[in-house]
What we know:
Elements: E1 2-7, H1 12-22, E2 26-31, H2 44-47, E3 55-58, E4 61-64, H3 66-77, H4 89-118, H5 126-158, H6 169-184, H7 192-202, H8 205-214
Parallel strand pairs: 1-2
Antiparallel strand pairs: 1-3, 3-4
Helix pairs in contact: 1-3, 1-6, 1-8, 4-5, 4-6, 5-7
Bound molecules: glutathione (GSH).
Glutathione binds at residues 7, 10-11, 39-40, 52-54, 65-66, 102.
Amino acid sequence: xxxxxHLNNSRSQRLLWLLEELGVLYDIKRYQRDPRTMLAPPxxxxxxPLGKSPVITDGDVTLAESGAIMEYVxxxxxxxxxxxxxxxxxxLRYIYWMHFAEGSAMPPLLMKLILDRMMKAPLxxxxxxxxxxxxVKTSFVEPNIRRQLDFMEAELGRSTWFAGDExxxxxIQMSFPLEAAxxxxxxxxxxxxxxxxxxxxxxxxxxxxxxxxxxxxxxxR
Length: 221
Ligand SMILES: N[C@@H](CCC(=O)N[C@@H](CS)C(=O)NCC(=O)O)C(=O)O
């Protein structure tokens, strides 16, 4: 059986959701973030050298990186579900969004999280830290987030889901950056398609079942 090495309040939640969508049996091994640093505990490094979540173990296989795990699970357990047919335009969009989520959408959102924390630097260095953080945020990070959100909003004007009119694993992969953008990246009602996407995924039975299994899921701000 697949074991998901699951860190609280993290990306591994979307993997539980994928497994629920496919009706795959799985076990969860839980890890708690350090409440001060928010980092994963060192035990996770015994499973994979980078010590990040998600990681899965499935028999002899240990696999990290959410996109790679998604592909592995869909290929091994999907029986053609949650993935468009090969050679179709939808398949190409599926591949694009599967990579975009971690490759393009997450980096500026992570930078925003770090820069927002810099604003709370110790008093002595706070004015300098704030000035640097504000400069990087306004000149680079926030314009990139806004441009990406506009692009995603327009894409969801083309089809119901990211890869086309069918729900796929690419939508599951895209859920995390959009949830993060809603928590800290300025995603709000001014982008109705994206907000509606979030409402639709949150209403799915498998999404809710995964939340029940996964436990606390509050995105970092
Ligand atoms: N691109 C990787 C990112 C993995 C990652 O950064 N995971 C976070 C959880 S959201 C983590 O483990 N953070 C704790 C830490 O860095 O110690 C993936 O998609 O799997």
